[in-house]
């Protein structure tokens, strides 16, 4: 194939494959690479091997690109395809990555899983029905979107967009969190407005910016006459098609999406060579100088090797400086009846009040712009990052924390402060985060690591070295209660 015949998209895809091979060869090395003339014999051999791999990757990818139909352009790496005005995203297919996960995974938390799941909820017939419903576009108002639209298995059950796009191409306010390991969440959604996966499954169906059905009953009515569904509901629940069982089936399927077995899990299990030296250094930084464990662990003084979250909410300075949150909070007090779930759900997705986060639920000023700590598992392949998808790479995320951003925000979490991480240390933390990728996503994870690494070399909009190495500025006091 001639390079002058390549489209720009194909060229970037091939370039990403070559970059992935280079990254694989060098992920155990520090980022300051010596000039080629000073490489050791072993390093030269690695470089030659990387070049050979790159060539093979380029060839295989070129064949794949040529053979792939237009509807399959989204590879799960990098930004998803652009959409025309008022166009809903294409509906993902239920391929192998959509299959329920086995408990036979290194690092699988058997005792915790048994605690959070009732055995009756995971009957095979219910899980099978739930998986079918997860990809069912008839649950949406116009038959164009499904749960999988925002939670694509090829993207580790996210959509790759900063904020999700739903029915009629309507653009929401929040980034789609992964469904992987959602069974372990104490609360669901970025603001924790519901506690169960059954409640979580219901709200997007009727949200006007997501699936847009007039009611859950309206969505149920569109599948109730389907003979296959009639049979499957009877097999799963012993009853006709109904709202409660539909939501229970979707939640049952989601509870099977436990994702572990990462290189880090194998490292913790005793395989010292499962992760790179850089990732090992990153793990130490994660629990020390980088202060990540203050939110991404169940306790501050014990290392968490399972969930990497604290089931709590924090204001980390994301988005709040772009909004006048005090007037928005007062508006929410006036317009939203406290505890009315549908109104909170609509405001969080469709309006600027979304930035208020947990405050929409609790009405506590201390919760203004606080959002749930997400798990870090598969974080490499679930970007863009944060509740508003405002960060493109893990290097951007680290730069945000490194400078303790948002200090002029009076509600900023007390643990936010400049970290004084140097560039090699940031690279090491990112290497550790990449080691949390489960095997189903290892290939696209390697490609995504290379893509983000390349982007970080030319674009670091969040980097502020002076602030990162400076003292913590004085934080303003919150205003008087409303």
Write the layout of secondary structure elements.
Elements: H1 8-26, H2 41-67, H3 110-116, H4 124-134, H5 147-150, H6 197-206, H7 216-224, H8 227-237, H9 243-254, H10 263-268, H11 277-286, E1 313-314, H12 325-335, H13 341-350, H14 359-362, E2 371-372, H15 394-402, H16 423-434, H17 442-458, H18 465-468
Number of strands: 2
Residue share in helix? 40-55%
Summed up, the helix count is 18
Q: Give the N-terminus to C-terminus distance in angstroms.
A: 66 Å
Low-confidence stretches: 1-72
Secondary structural class = mainly alpha
Q: Looking at the chains present, what oligomeric state does this protein adopt? A: single chain
Estimated radius of gyration: 23 Å
* Apparent shape: globular
Tell me the strand percentage band: under 5%
Strand order of the largest sheet: 1-2
Mean pLDDT across every amino acid position: 86
Listing every helix as H and every strand as E from the N terminus to the C terminus, the arrangement reads HHHHHHHHHHHEHHHEHHHH
- Biggest sheet overview: 2 strands, antiparallel
Describe this structure in words.
The protein has 482 residues and is mainly alpha-helical. 40% of the residues lie in helices and 1% in strands. The chain contains 18 helices and two strands. It has a two-stranded antiparallel ribbon. Helix 1 (8-26) packs antiparallel against helix 2 (41-67) and helix 6 (197-206) packs across helix 9 (243-254). The chain is globular, with a radius of gyration of 23 Å.
Features of the shown structure:
482 residues; two-stranded antiparallel sheet; disordered N terminus
């Amino acid at each position: 194939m001639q390079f002058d015949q390549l489209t720009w998209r194909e060229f970037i895809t091939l370039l990403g494959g070559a970059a992935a091979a280079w990254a694989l060869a060098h992920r155990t090395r520090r980022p300051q690479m010596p000039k080629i003339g000073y490489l050791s014999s072993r390093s030269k051999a690695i470089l030659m091997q990387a070049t050979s791999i790159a060539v093979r990757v380029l060839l295989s990818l070129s064949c794949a690109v040529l053979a792939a139909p237009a509807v399959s352009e989204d590879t799960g790496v990098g930004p998803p395809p652009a959409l025309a005005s008022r166009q809903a995203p294409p509906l993902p297919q239920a391929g192998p990555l959509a299959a329920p996960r086995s408990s036979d995974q290194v690092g699988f938390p058997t005792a915790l899983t048994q605690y959070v799941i009732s055995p009756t909820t995971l009957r095979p017939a219910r899980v099978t029905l739930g998986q079918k419903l997860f990809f069912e576009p008839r649950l949406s108002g116009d038959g164009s979107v499904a749960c999988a639209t925002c939670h694509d298995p090829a993207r580790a059950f996210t959509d790759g967009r900063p904020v999700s796009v739903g029915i009629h191409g309507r653009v929401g306010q929040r980034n789609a969190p992964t469904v992987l390991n959602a069974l372990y969440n104490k609360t669901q959604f970025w603001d924790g407005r519901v506690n169960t996966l059954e409640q979580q499954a219901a709200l997007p169906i009727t949200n006007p910016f997501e699936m847009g059905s007039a009611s859950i009953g309206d969505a149920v009515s569109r599948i109730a006459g389907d003979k296959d569904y009639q049979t499957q509901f009877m097999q799963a629940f012993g009853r006709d098609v109904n709202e409660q069982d539909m939501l229970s089936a979707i939640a049952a399927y989601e509870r099977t999406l436990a994702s572990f077995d990462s290189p880090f899990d194998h490292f913790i299990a005793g395989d010292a060579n499962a992760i790179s030296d850089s990732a090992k250094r990153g793990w130490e930084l994660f629990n020390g100088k980088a202060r990540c464990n203050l939110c991404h662990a169940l306790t501050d003084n014990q290392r968490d090797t399972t969930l990497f979250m604290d089931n709590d909410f924090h204001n980390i300075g994301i988005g709040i400086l772009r909004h006048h949150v005090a007037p928005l909070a007062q508006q929410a007090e006036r317009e939203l009846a406290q505890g009315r779930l549908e109104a909170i759900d609509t405001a969080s997705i469709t309006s600027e009040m979304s930035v208020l986060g947990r405050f929409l639920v609790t009405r506590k000023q201390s919760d203004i712009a606080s959002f749930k700590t997400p798990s870090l598992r598969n974080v490499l392949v679930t970007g863009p990052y944060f509740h508003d998808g405002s960060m493109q790479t893990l290097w951007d995320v680290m730069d945000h924390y490194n400078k303790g951003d948002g200090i002029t925000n009076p509600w900023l979490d007390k643990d936010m402060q400049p970290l004084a991480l140097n560039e090699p240390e940031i690279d090491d933390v990112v290497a550790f985060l990449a080691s949390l990728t489960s095997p189903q996503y290892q290939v696209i994870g390697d490609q995504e690591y290379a893509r983000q690494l390349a982007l970080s070399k030319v674009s670091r909009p969040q980097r502020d070295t002076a602030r990162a190495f400076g003292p913590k500025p004085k934080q303003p006091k919150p205003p008087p209660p409303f």
